[in-house]
Design goal:
The chain is α+β, with helices and mostly antiparallel strands and 411 residues long. It folds into three domains: 159 residues, no CATH class; 113 residues, no CATH class; 80 residues, no CATH class. The protein contains 16 helices and 16 strands. The strands form three sheets. Strands 1, 4, 11, 12, 13, 14, 15 and 16 form an eight-stranded mixed beta sheet that branches. A six-stranded mixed beta sheet has the order 5-9-10-8-7-6. β13 and β14 form a beta hairpin. The chain is globular.
Length: 411
Amino acid sequence: MVKLDLPEREYINYANGSNADKEELLQLVDRIWEVDPKRKSLIDKIKMEFPIPNIIKISGAKEAIDTFKSIDIHKTDIDLALKDITNIDFVKFADGSDEYKLYFSTLSPAGKIAMDGVTAIYNATSTFLDQYMSLSKAAKFALHNDEKVVLLKLIKEYQSNVDINKKINKLRFIDIGDATYLRAVVSSNYKLYDNDIVLYMAMSVICDVASKMNKKFELSHVKATESKFFATFFEEDRIQIRKNVYLQVGLRVQNSELGDGAAKFQTIYKIQNHNGKNSFTVIRNELSSIYHDYNPYKIAVKLQKLHDFDQEISDMKKAVSKISWDKQVTRESLNYVAHKISSLRKGMSKELKEEIINKIDAADITKKTFTIAKLFNQLDSFMLDKGMDAQVAFESNFAKWLREINRQIKN
Protein backbone atom coordinates (compact mmCIF):
# COMPACT_ATOMS: atom_id res chain seq x y z
CA MET A 1 0.00 0.00 0.00
CA VAL A 2 1.34 3.45 -0.96
CA LYS A 3 2.41 5.70 1.91
CA LEU A 4 -0.06 8.51 2.54
CA ASP A 5 1.21 12.09 2.66
CA LEU A 6 -1.15 14.39 4.54
CA PRO A 7 -0.72 18.14 3.98
CA GLU A 8 0.55 20.46 6.72
CA ARG A 9 -0.29 24.14 6.35
CA GLU A 10 1.65 26.95 7.98
CA TYR A 11 1.31 30.70 8.41
CA ILE A 12 4.03 32.90 9.90
CA ASN A 13 3.15 36.52 10.61
CA TYR A 14 6.39 38.24 9.64
CA ALA A 15 4.76 41.68 9.55
CA ASN A 16 1.48 43.46 8.88
CA GLY A 17 -0.89 40.57 9.47
CA SER A 18 -4.55 41.49 9.05
CA ASN A 19 -7.45 41.68 11.47
CA ALA A 20 -10.48 39.53 10.64
CA ASP A 21 -14.18 40.18 10.38
CA LYS A 22 -16.51 38.30 12.70
CA GLU A 23 -18.21 36.74 9.68
CA GLU A 24 -14.95 35.15 8.49
CA LEU A 25 -14.53 33.30 11.78
CA LEU A 26 -18.19 32.27 11.90
CA GLN A 27 -17.88 30.79 8.41
CA LEU A 28 -15.00 28.65 9.67
CA VAL A 29 -17.08 26.93 12.36
CA ASP A 30 -20.34 26.94 10.41
CA ARG A 31 -18.79 24.79 7.69
CA ILE A 32 -18.67 21.97 10.28
CA TRP A 33 -22.43 21.70 10.80
CA GLU A 34 -23.12 22.40 7.13
CA VAL A 35 -21.40 19.04 6.46
CA ASP A 36 -22.78 17.37 9.61
CA PRO A 37 -26.11 18.99 10.68
CA LYS A 38 -26.16 16.94 13.92
CA ARG A 39 -23.38 19.18 15.27
CA LYS A 40 -25.24 22.48 14.90
CA SER A 41 -26.61 22.36 18.45
CA LEU A 42 -23.10 22.08 19.96
CA ILE A 43 -21.75 24.88 17.77
CA ASP A 44 -24.66 27.15 18.71
CA LYS A 45 -23.83 26.59 22.41
CA ILE A 46 -20.18 27.41 21.73
CA LYS A 47 -21.15 30.68 20.03
CA MET A 48 -23.27 31.58 23.05
CA GLU A 49 -20.44 30.93 25.55
CA PHE A 50 -17.72 32.47 23.38
CA PRO A 51 -18.90 35.77 21.85
CA ILE A 52 -16.90 37.33 19.03
CA PRO A 53 -16.54 41.09 18.40
CA ASN A 54 -17.45 42.44 14.96
CA ILE A 55 -13.77 43.04 14.25
CA ILE A 56 -11.23 40.53 15.57
CA LYS A 57 -8.37 42.90 16.38
CA ILE A 58 -5.59 40.32 16.30
CA SER A 59 -2.88 40.88 13.72
CA GLY A 60 -2.69 37.77 11.54
CA ALA A 61 -6.20 36.53 12.43
CA LYS A 62 -7.44 36.71 8.84
CA GLU A 63 -4.42 34.84 7.47
CA ALA A 64 -4.75 32.14 10.16
CA ILE A 65 -8.44 31.64 9.33
CA ASP A 66 -7.56 31.39 5.63
CA THR A 67 -4.89 28.81 6.49
CA PHE A 68 -7.50 26.66 8.22
CA LYS A 69 -9.96 27.08 5.35
CA SER A 70 -7.30 25.86 2.89
CA ILE A 71 -7.41 22.43 4.57
CA ASP A 72 -10.39 21.19 2.63
CA ILE A 73 -10.57 17.46 3.38
CA HIS A 74 -13.90 15.73 3.75
CA LYS A 75 -14.37 14.33 7.28
CA THR A 76 -17.01 11.91 8.52
CA ASP A 77 -17.82 10.70 12.05
CA ILE A 78 -19.91 7.55 12.44
CA ASP A 79 -20.97 5.60 15.54
CA LEU A 80 -20.32 1.91 14.84
CA ALA A 81 -20.42 -1.32 16.81
CA LEU A 82 -17.88 -4.08 16.20
CA LYS A 83 -20.63 -6.08 14.44
CA ASP A 84 -20.85 -3.25 11.87
CA ILE A 85 -17.27 -3.87 10.73
CA THR A 86 -16.21 -6.62 8.33
CA ASN A 87 -13.33 -7.82 6.09
CA ILE A 88 -10.77 -6.96 8.79
CA ASP A 89 -7.14 -7.39 7.70
CA PHE A 90 -3.71 -5.87 8.41
CA VAL A 91 -1.53 -4.38 5.65
CA LYS A 92 1.74 -2.49 5.36
CA PHE A 93 2.46 0.87 3.79
CA ALA A 94 5.20 0.85 1.16
CA ASP A 95 7.52 3.01 3.27
CA GLY A 96 10.10 0.42 4.31
CA SER A 97 8.70 0.02 7.82
CA ASP A 98 7.40 -3.19 9.40
CA GLU A 99 4.33 -1.48 10.83
CA TYR A 100 0.97 -3.01 9.99
CA LYS A 101 -2.15 -0.89 9.48
CA LEU A 102 -5.71 -2.00 10.05
CA TYR A 103 -7.78 -2.51 6.87
CA PHE A 104 -11.55 -3.10 6.90
CA SER A 105 -14.99 -2.35 5.48
CA THR A 106 -18.14 -1.11 7.22
CA LEU A 107 -21.69 -2.40 6.99
CA SER A 108 -24.90 -0.44 6.55
CA PRO A 109 -27.92 -1.15 8.83
CA ALA A 110 -29.19 -3.37 6.00
CA GLY A 111 -26.00 -5.46 6.21
CA LYS A 112 -24.52 -4.25 2.91
CA ILE A 113 -21.04 -2.80 2.41
CA ALA A 114 -21.15 0.94 3.19
CA MET A 115 -17.47 1.89 3.10
CA ASP A 116 -15.10 -0.52 1.41
CA GLY A 117 -11.33 -0.79 1.87
CA VAL A 118 -10.77 1.63 4.75
CA THR A 119 -7.17 1.94 6.01
CA ALA A 120 -6.24 3.14 9.50
CA ILE A 121 -3.68 5.95 9.79
CA TYR A 122 -1.97 7.72 12.68
CA ASN A 123 -2.49 5.58 15.80
CA ALA A 124 -5.96 4.38 14.78
CA THR A 125 -4.93 0.73 14.42
CA SER A 126 -4.02 0.52 18.11
CA THR A 127 -6.97 2.57 19.34
CA PHE A 128 -9.42 0.51 17.28
CA LEU A 129 -8.09 -2.75 18.71
CA ASP A 130 -8.11 -1.39 22.28
CA GLN A 131 -11.43 0.45 22.21
CA TYR A 132 -13.29 -2.60 20.93
CA MET A 133 -11.27 -5.56 22.25
CA SER A 134 -8.31 -4.40 24.46
CA LEU A 135 -6.12 -6.16 21.94
CA SER A 136 -3.43 -3.80 20.62
CA LYS A 137 -0.46 -5.27 22.52
CA ALA A 138 -1.38 -8.83 21.68
CA ALA A 139 -1.98 -7.85 18.05
CA LYS A 140 1.39 -6.14 17.78
CA PHE A 141 3.08 -9.26 19.20
CA ALA A 142 1.21 -11.58 16.81
CA LEU A 143 1.95 -9.47 13.73
CA HIS A 144 5.62 -9.12 14.68
CA ASN A 145 5.84 -12.91 14.86
CA ASP A 146 4.04 -13.54 11.54
CA GLU A 147 0.92 -14.87 13.26
CA LYS A 148 -1.62 -12.70 11.42
CA VAL A 149 -3.88 -15.70 10.75
CA VAL A 150 -4.09 -16.43 14.49
CA LEU A 151 -4.89 -12.77 15.20
CA LEU A 152 -7.65 -12.58 12.59
CA LYS A 153 -9.19 -15.79 13.96
CA LEU A 154 -9.23 -14.27 17.47
CA ILE A 155 -10.90 -11.09 16.18
CA LYS A 156 -13.61 -13.18 14.49
CA GLU A 157 -14.26 -14.92 17.80
CA TYR A 158 -14.64 -11.55 19.52
CA GLN A 159 -17.06 -10.44 16.79
CA SER A 160 -19.21 -13.49 17.51
CA ASN A 161 -19.43 -12.56 21.21
CA VAL A 162 -22.72 -10.68 21.67
CA ASP A 163 -21.48 -8.59 24.61
CA ILE A 164 -18.37 -7.47 22.74
CA ASN A 165 -19.76 -6.94 19.26
CA LYS A 166 -22.49 -4.51 20.37
CA LYS A 167 -20.12 -1.96 21.94
CA ILE A 168 -20.32 1.34 20.06
CA ASN A 169 -17.46 3.75 19.40
CA LYS A 170 -17.20 6.84 17.26
CA LEU A 171 -14.99 6.32 14.19
CA ARG A 172 -13.45 9.41 12.59
CA PHE A 173 -12.87 9.08 8.83
CA ILE A 174 -11.34 11.28 6.15
CA ASP A 175 -11.62 10.97 2.38
CA ILE A 176 -8.61 11.68 0.18
CA GLY A 177 -9.21 11.15 -3.50
CA ASP A 178 -11.21 7.95 -3.88
CA ALA A 179 -9.86 6.43 -0.66
CA THR A 180 -11.27 6.51 2.86
CA TYR A 181 -9.01 6.45 5.94
CA LEU A 182 -9.72 5.90 9.62
CA ARG A 183 -7.86 8.59 11.55
CA ALA A 184 -9.19 7.99 15.08
CA VAL A 185 -11.47 5.90 17.30
CA VAL A 186 -13.00 7.69 20.28
CA SER A 187 -15.72 6.93 22.79
CA SER A 188 -19.32 7.64 21.82
CA ASN A 189 -19.57 10.49 24.39
CA TYR A 190 -16.48 12.27 22.97
CA LYS A 191 -17.44 15.85 22.03
CA LEU A 192 -16.04 16.87 18.68
CA TYR A 193 -14.12 20.03 19.53
CA ASP A 194 -12.31 20.10 16.22
CA ASN A 195 -9.51 22.46 15.21
CA ASP A 196 -11.83 25.09 13.73
CA ILE A 197 -13.82 25.22 16.99
CA VAL A 198 -10.76 25.48 19.26
CA LEU A 199 -9.30 28.29 17.10
CA TYR A 200 -12.68 30.06 17.37
CA MET A 201 -12.61 29.70 21.19
CA ALA A 202 -9.01 30.93 21.35
CA MET A 203 -9.74 34.06 19.30
CA SER A 204 -12.79 34.81 21.43
CA VAL A 205 -10.78 34.56 24.66
CA ILE A 206 -7.77 36.49 23.30
CA CYS A 207 -10.05 39.32 22.16
CA ASP A 208 -11.61 39.45 25.63
CA VAL A 209 -8.23 39.41 27.42
CA ALA A 210 -6.80 42.07 25.09
CA SER A 211 -9.78 44.34 25.69
CA LYS A 212 -9.66 44.01 29.49
CA MET A 213 -5.86 44.41 29.67
CA ASN A 214 -5.81 47.17 27.04
CA LYS A 215 -3.15 45.28 25.06
CA LYS A 216 -2.69 44.31 21.41
CA PHE A 217 -2.03 40.75 20.33
CA GLU A 218 -0.75 39.21 17.14
CA LEU A 219 -1.25 35.68 15.89
CA SER A 220 2.37 35.08 14.98
CA HIS A 221 2.47 31.43 13.92
CA VAL A 222 0.06 28.66 12.95
CA LYS A 223 0.77 25.06 11.93
CA ALA A 224 -2.17 22.84 11.04
CA THR A 225 -3.05 19.51 9.50
CA GLU A 226 -6.53 18.07 9.03
CA SER A 227 -6.28 16.61 12.57
CA LYS A 228 -3.94 18.78 14.66
CA PHE A 229 -2.86 22.38 15.05
CA PHE A 230 -1.03 24.84 17.20
CA ALA A 231 -1.34 28.63 17.15
CA THR A 232 0.92 31.12 18.87
CA PHE A 233 -0.39 34.49 20.07
CA PHE A 234 2.03 37.17 21.31
CA GLU A 235 1.58 40.60 22.78
CA GLU A 236 2.74 43.05 20.16
CA ASP A 237 4.84 45.08 22.63
CA ARG A 238 8.22 43.75 23.75
CA ILE A 239 9.62 44.16 27.26
CA GLN A 240 13.30 45.02 27.65
CA ILE A 241 14.91 42.81 30.30
CA ARG A 242 18.44 44.12 29.99
CA LYS A 243 20.72 45.50 27.29
CA ASN A 244 19.98 43.73 24.00
CA VAL A 245 17.61 41.19 25.62
CA TYR A 246 13.89 41.55 24.94
CA LEU A 247 10.94 39.50 26.16
CA GLN A 248 7.68 38.94 24.30
CA VAL A 249 4.94 37.06 26.16
CA GLY A 250 2.01 35.15 24.78
CA LEU A 251 -0.17 32.06 24.60
CA ARG A 252 0.18 28.80 22.70
CA VAL A 253 -3.02 26.93 21.81
CA GLN A 254 -2.91 23.37 20.53
CA ASN A 255 -5.49 20.72 19.76
CA SER A 256 -5.88 17.24 18.35
CA GLU A 257 -8.94 15.63 16.77
CA LEU A 258 -7.47 12.15 17.25
CA GLY A 259 -8.56 11.46 20.83
CA ASP A 260 -4.97 11.57 22.09
CA GLY A 261 -5.21 14.46 24.51
CA ALA A 262 -6.88 17.67 25.58
CA ALA A 263 -6.77 21.02 23.89
CA LYS A 264 -4.14 23.06 25.73
CA PHE A 265 -3.74 26.76 26.47
CA GLN A 266 -0.16 27.47 27.59
CA THR A 267 1.81 30.57 28.48
CA ILE A 268 4.92 31.08 26.36
CA TYR A 269 7.62 33.65 25.89
CA LYS A 270 10.02 34.62 23.16
CA ILE A 271 13.55 35.89 23.77
CA GLN A 272 15.19 38.06 21.12
CA ASN A 273 17.81 40.76 20.70
CA HIS A 274 17.06 44.33 19.64
CA ASN A 275 16.74 43.53 15.93
CA GLY A 276 14.73 40.33 16.44
CA LYS A 277 17.59 37.93 15.75
CA ASN A 278 18.71 35.08 18.03
CA SER A 279 15.07 34.57 18.95
CA PHE A 280 13.44 31.42 20.27
CA THR A 281 10.19 30.41 21.93
CA VAL A 282 9.78 28.71 25.31
CA ILE A 283 6.57 27.00 26.46
CA ARG A 284 6.33 27.84 30.16
CA ASN A 285 3.08 26.88 31.93
CA GLU A 286 -0.19 25.20 31.09
CA LEU A 287 -2.97 27.60 32.02
CA SER A 288 -5.86 25.36 31.06
CA SER A 289 -6.65 22.00 29.46
CA ILE A 290 -9.90 21.44 27.63
CA TYR A 291 -10.96 17.80 27.67
CA HIS A 292 -13.26 16.53 24.97
CA ASP A 293 -15.99 15.45 27.38
CA TYR A 294 -16.47 19.01 28.69
CA ASN A 295 -19.57 20.98 27.74
CA PRO A 296 -19.12 24.52 26.33
CA TYR A 297 -20.05 26.20 29.64
CA LYS A 298 -17.41 24.25 31.55
CA ILE A 299 -14.82 25.17 28.94
CA ALA A 300 -15.69 28.86 29.26
CA VAL A 301 -15.27 28.62 33.05
CA LYS A 302 -11.91 26.84 32.70
CA LEU A 303 -10.63 29.48 30.29
CA GLN A 304 -11.31 32.22 32.82
CA LYS A 305 -7.78 31.38 34.03
CA LEU A 306 -6.47 33.28 31.01
CA HIS A 307 -7.54 36.46 32.75
CA ASP A 308 -4.66 35.84 35.21
CA PHE A 309 -2.32 36.68 32.35
CA ASP A 310 -0.94 39.79 34.08
CA GLN A 311 0.43 37.64 36.92
CA GLU A 312 1.91 35.22 34.39
CA ILE A 313 3.69 38.14 32.69
CA SER A 314 5.17 39.21 36.03
CA ASP A 315 6.35 35.65 36.75
CA MET A 316 7.88 35.30 33.28
CA LYS A 317 9.81 38.56 33.65
CA LYS A 318 11.29 37.36 36.94
CA ALA A 319 12.26 33.97 35.48
CA VAL A 320 13.83 35.47 32.36
CA SER A 321 15.77 38.07 34.37
CA LYS A 322 17.60 35.27 36.22
CA ILE A 323 19.09 33.80 33.03
CA SER A 324 22.62 34.84 32.00
CA TRP A 325 21.73 35.08 28.32
CA ASP A 326 25.10 36.34 27.10
CA LYS A 327 27.21 33.81 29.03
CA GLN A 328 29.26 31.30 27.05
CA VAL A 329 27.88 27.75 27.08
CA THR A 330 30.20 25.16 28.58
CA ARG A 331 31.01 21.66 27.36
CA GLU A 332 29.10 20.34 30.39
CA SER A 333 26.02 22.27 29.27
CA LEU A 334 26.25 21.00 25.70
CA ASN A 335 26.56 17.44 26.95
CA TYR A 336 23.53 18.00 29.18
CA VAL A 337 21.40 19.26 26.26
CA ALA A 338 22.55 16.41 24.01
CA HIS A 339 21.64 13.88 26.70
CA LYS A 340 18.20 15.43 27.21
CA ILE A 341 17.52 15.47 23.47
CA SER A 342 18.48 11.80 23.19
CA SER A 343 16.02 11.00 26.02
CA LEU A 344 13.02 12.67 24.34
CA ARG A 345 10.33 10.28 23.16
CA LYS A 346 7.05 11.90 22.19
CA GLY A 347 7.11 13.34 18.68
CA MET A 348 10.82 12.62 18.14
CA SER A 349 12.30 9.84 16.00
CA LYS A 350 15.77 8.44 16.73
CA GLU A 351 17.04 9.84 13.42
CA LEU A 352 15.71 13.32 14.15
CA LYS A 353 17.31 13.38 17.61
CA GLU A 354 20.68 12.37 16.15
CA GLU A 355 20.37 15.06 13.49
CA ILE A 356 19.65 17.75 16.10
CA ILE A 357 22.56 16.72 18.30
CA ASN A 358 24.91 16.92 15.32
CA LYS A 359 23.70 20.47 14.70
CA ILE A 360 25.10 21.61 18.04
CA ASP A 361 28.38 22.90 16.67
CA ALA A 362 30.96 22.44 19.44
CA ALA A 363 33.50 24.42 17.46
CA ASP A 364 31.68 27.60 18.44
CA ILE A 365 32.80 27.11 22.04
CA THR A 366 36.42 27.73 21.13
CA LYS A 367 35.33 30.91 19.33
CA LYS A 368 33.57 32.02 22.54
CA THR A 369 30.40 32.87 20.62
CA PHE A 370 28.10 30.06 21.72
CA THR A 371 25.95 31.85 24.29
CA ILE A 372 22.79 30.53 25.93
CA ALA A 373 20.70 32.71 23.61
CA LYS A 374 22.52 31.49 20.50
CA LEU A 375 22.27 27.82 21.52
CA PHE A 376 18.51 27.93 21.99
CA ASN A 377 18.01 30.03 18.87
CA GLN A 378 19.88 27.38 16.87
CA LEU A 379 17.82 24.57 18.39
CA ASP A 380 14.51 26.36 17.86
CA SER A 381 15.34 27.39 14.28
CA PHE A 382 16.27 23.85 13.37
CA MET A 383 12.87 22.55 14.56
CA LEU A 384 10.75 24.90 12.46
CA ASP A 385 10.39 22.46 9.56
CA LYS A 386 10.46 19.21 11.54
CA GLY A 387 6.75 18.79 12.09
CA MET A 388 4.26 20.03 14.63
CA ASP A 389 4.63 17.29 17.25
CA ALA A 390 8.42 17.52 17.27
CA GLN A 391 8.46 21.32 17.58
CA VAL A 392 5.99 21.35 20.49
CA ALA A 393 7.85 18.51 22.26
CA PHE A 394 11.09 20.46 21.94
CA GLU A 395 9.85 23.86 23.07
CA SER A 396 8.04 22.26 26.03
CA ASN A 397 11.44 21.26 27.45
CA PHE A 398 13.28 24.55 26.92
CA ALA A 399 12.29 26.08 30.29
CA LYS A 400 13.84 23.33 32.43
CA TRP A 401 16.90 23.05 30.16
CA LEU A 402 17.46 26.80 30.52
CA ARG A 403 17.27 26.66 34.31
CA GLU A 404 19.80 23.81 34.49
CA ILE A 405 22.27 25.39 32.03
CA ASN A 406 22.06 28.69 33.86
CA ARG A 407 22.80 26.90 37.15
CA GLN A 408 25.83 25.13 35.61
CA ILE A 409 27.25 28.36 34.24
CA LYS A 410 26.82 30.25 37.51
CA ASN A 411 28.51 27.45 39.47
